[in-house]
């Protein structure tokens, strides 16, 4: 497992209108709770060795809509941030490939990562779609698959002891995916307890 650092991510509001749609079935957390982000990040950081509490806060808090959504909205924000990370990283990899700064092995690794990130984008889109239909198991499987692709990308460079130029991006996408997975798990627990 590689060590993750973190950075602040911006939000492109692709699913902005969807975050405000109230769920009629249940509301596990008050949508206007000021402490929702802090509480969620603490719970998720406590449950996962991958999630850094500060990364979670600095990813979710700067998003204005995050302060007025419920737990479902926070999950969508995390997934949207993951999607933005993946698409931005594709552009970064394309720039790296054309820079002439990498040896043959690193270029092959970058090409593999480009393909992996290309595969991750539709998986993230599909995970968002599954989540919106409350198909939490399907959304979780897709997010887990995306996280596996990031490990594969990172591990490729390590085969010959190369330092990955994508560690920060891979770590960020893995953490965002794990934050979304954690929130989906919290929602599933709330849903199960409601119907048990």
UniProtKB/TrEMBL annotation:
GO terms for cellular component: extracellular region. SMART domains: PMEI. SUPFAM superfamilies: Plant invertase/pectin methylesterase inhibitor. The keyword Isomerase does not apply. Transmembrane segments: none annotated. InterPro entries: Invertase/methylesterase_inhib (IPR035513), Pectinesterase_inhib_dom (IPR006501), Pla_a_1-like (IPR034088). CDD domains: PMEI-Pla_a_1_like. Residues 32-183 form the Pectinesterase inhibitor domain. GO terms for molecular function: enzyme inhibitor activity. Residues 1-31 form the signal peptide. Pfam families: PMEI. Keywords: Disulfide bond, Signal. PANTHER family: OS02G0537100 PROTEIN, PECTINESTERASE INHIBITOR 12. Belongs to the PMEI family. NCBIfam families: PME_inhib. This is Pectinesterase inhibitor domain-containing protein. It comes from Camellia sinensis var. sinensis.
């Amino acid at each position: 497992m590689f060590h993750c650092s973190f950075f602040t991510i911006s939000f492109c509001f692709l699913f902005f209108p969807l975050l405000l749609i109230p769920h009629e079935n249940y509301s596990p957390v008050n949508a206007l709770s000021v402490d929702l982000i802090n509480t969620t990040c603490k719970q998720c950081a406590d449950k996962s060795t991958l999630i850094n509490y500060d990364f979670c806060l600095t990813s979710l808090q700067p998003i204005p809509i995050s302060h007025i959504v419920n737990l479902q909205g926070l999950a969508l924000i995390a997934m949207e941030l993951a999607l933005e990370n993946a698409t931005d990283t594709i552009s970064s990899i394309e720039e790296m490939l054309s820079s002439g700064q990498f040896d043959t092995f690193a270029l092959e690794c970058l090409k593999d990562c480009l393909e992996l990130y290309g595969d991750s984008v539709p998986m993230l889109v599909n995970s968002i779609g599954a989540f919106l239909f409350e198909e939490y198991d399907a959304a979780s499987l897709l997010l887990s698959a995306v996280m596996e692709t990031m490990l594969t990308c990172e591990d490729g460079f390590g085969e010959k002891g190369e330092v990955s130029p994508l560690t920060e991006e891979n770590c960020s996408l893995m953490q965002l995916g794990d934050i979304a997975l954690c929130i989906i798990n919290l929602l599933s627990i709330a849903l199960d307890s409601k119907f048990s």
